[in-house]
Amino acid sequence: MSDADRGGDAIEVDFGDDGLVPAIAQDADSGEVLMLAYVSPEALDRTRETGEAHYYSRSRDELWHKGGSSGHTQAVREVRVDCDADTLLYLVDQNVGACHTGHRSCFHRTIDGERVGERVFDPDEVY
Fold first, then answer.
1. Which residues contact 76 (CB under 8 A, 6 or more apart)?
2. What is the pLDDT of residues 65-105, one digit of tens each?
3. Per the annotation, where are the binding residues?
4. Which of 4, 24, 55, 75 is most buried per CB count within 10 Å?
5. Would you list which residues are annotated within the binding site for Zn(2+)?
6. What does the pLDDT look like over 22-55, one tens digit per residue?
7. What pTM, to 2 d.p., does this model score?
8. Kind plus residue range of the DSSP H or E element containing 55
9. Binding residues for Mg(2+)
């Protein structure tokens, strides 16, 4: 194993021209993919400081604390970075559901429209 494969040095994330990288939130225990969002340098710093997932909302153009309004937070156990250092993986403990539609995962439908995910809360009661 080479020194580069052994680890130990912090990875410099490549935030690209727009200052954002995609981040996949995955259940740390089950491996279920919960959602994909974007992360700015500030969002990554806040995630690392607080232990809870922070993202960057492109539609609102602002930092976003996951669960800040719903209470459906993500406790981040580990942040991983891909081989190109331009995508993050948040291994999380999800409180209730990750999707604003009330489902545990944002990936609750097949491409053919079949519902495969569990609805865990009523969004009309939360938002």
1. 47, 51, 52, 53, 90, 91, 92
2. 999 999 999 999 999 999 999 999 999 999 999 999 999 99
3. 82-84, 86, 99, 106
4. 55
5. 83, 99, 106
6. 999 999 999 999 999 999 999 999 999 999 999 9
7. 0.91
8. strand 54-57
9. 82, 84, 86
